[in-house]
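Your task:
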Amino acid sequence: MHVDVDVFKDVKLDNNCNQTYGNSNNTAPNDNKPQMKSNEYWGKRSLQFSTLGDTFDALGGHKQKPGYLGIGAIASNGECCAEIGGKILRNGGSAVDAAIATLLCEGVMLPHSLGIGGGFVANLYTKETGKIEILIARETAPAAAHQDMFMAKEITGAIAAATPGEIYGYWCLHQKYGKLPWKTLFEPGIELCFKGHRVTKYLANILEFYRERVLKEATMAEIFINPYTNDLYKENEIMYRPQLGETLKILAEEGPGAMYDGGRIGKMLVEDIQEMGGIITEEDLKNYKVRWEEPIVMPFAKDYRLFTAPLPTSGVVLAFILKVLEPLHTTDEPVFCQRMIEAFKHGYGFRTNLGDTRYEPHVTEEFEKFISPEFADDIRTLIRDDTTCTNMGYYNANFTHVEDHGTANLSVIAPNGDAIAITSTVNSHLGAKVRSRQTGIILNDEMDDFSTPGFVNTYGIPASPANYIKPGKIPMSSTCPSIVLDNFGHIQLMVGGAGGSKITSGVAQTILRYFILNEPIEAAINSGRVHHQLSPMYIDIETTVPEYTIDYLLNVGHELNYLSPDKPFSALTAIGFKTGKPHPVCDGRRLGSTALINFNA
């Protein structure tokens, strides 16, 4: 990709995001915050960090030079956003710099999926040390939240918003791994807000699907109705976000303090939220913390190791599914598909016993059981090739399942070999379906990812106690940004997805196809998929799945729900490395963009 931009000047890194180990008792920690308001203050609000260590040094991994050095690559869900990240890399930016600029672009172009009113999970690889770190900057329950708050209320609107972490998470990433000035990373997104951007087919479809909700909510109608047509924006029309652009300009100039430490963005945001019935306060913003965590590490396919995000993400569910299925591989596609579906059912069933271990210490025992080799062995004995079960208790379920859709994934590798896979979300499509007028920020509806006591969902399933609301708690998430390394410590795959609960199963199928079936990365991502989350008790299946596999599943006794290519399924972004060079790919189910920057040419 050829990029013509001026080289950024005055490159400066203020790297004060210190790391500390998390408290060992898994309780919600207290933060004795210093009074200073310098960059050092903002950095020290990072809550937890622990390192993997030089995992691959003993294997001699760092003695071999990977073939992908000198090449940068980006795979983005935003149709023009990878090019923006590519320009950042071309002009000396780090993988984190490129990720932040790309995500800010996506937040403008994909307001139905992510934005600075949401949160994210990042999986970072540092080539020089071989270390992998997880940064969790997800939304947290406000201080006034309690487990019974939605027993008599609909979980929508401003009341459904959790404390956002997106901007503060970007700041902590930049403080540790940024190279270019913070302000520089905002410039492309700000330009999109004021000069306009093309409406994608996917955004146009989302707006049409939520037509009634958008038109009835004035704060949303103001930005999603085209003033020239007096109707919702359609594909290829040009949309503008000037109020959001002003907010991004302030954040670029003033840093996260403008939002998280009594600054004008935070004050306006809270004022609008409370006027619309929400409960987020300025204190919630001031008390917000990110978490640096260890990854879940799982040996896979003999020569590889999977590194994925820990609770309260679904990385553990992904690892469990892969651990169960690897010994069950067969070239008989229908049989393997049946085994995979049963592994999904067990994984999603057990997921309902999980939650945020900092607020639910007992979940640690469930987690340790879930990842144990003995548990995977036991589950394999329950999987049959010719039968299935409709009893949810058979699959260890204890739940309300909550569906989420508003998500985007990004994969970036820099020419020095550093990499980041990051999944950002506002939870549902268009989040809480309301917007802060003064800031232009669309609110998340992350409170909907929690469970409510006594609540029975649409499918008659009771709530999951491990996921009840508590102030400061993070709800369970379907996200699982993942990196696979070989035994030399070289990246072989970066992958993550958008699409709610279908993310985990989609990532699992892609990894299995790429490493076990040895398919090219495009085929691994775009092949027909299946999904079973236990509730509802049927398989979501794409019409591109072979008919002989469909017939087999019907004969086993499954109920099938057919999804055509234009219906919602998880959309992945990935970078494959099997050829020795990075190969960025976007899922054909949802148009995105890729960039490849060869510094060796």
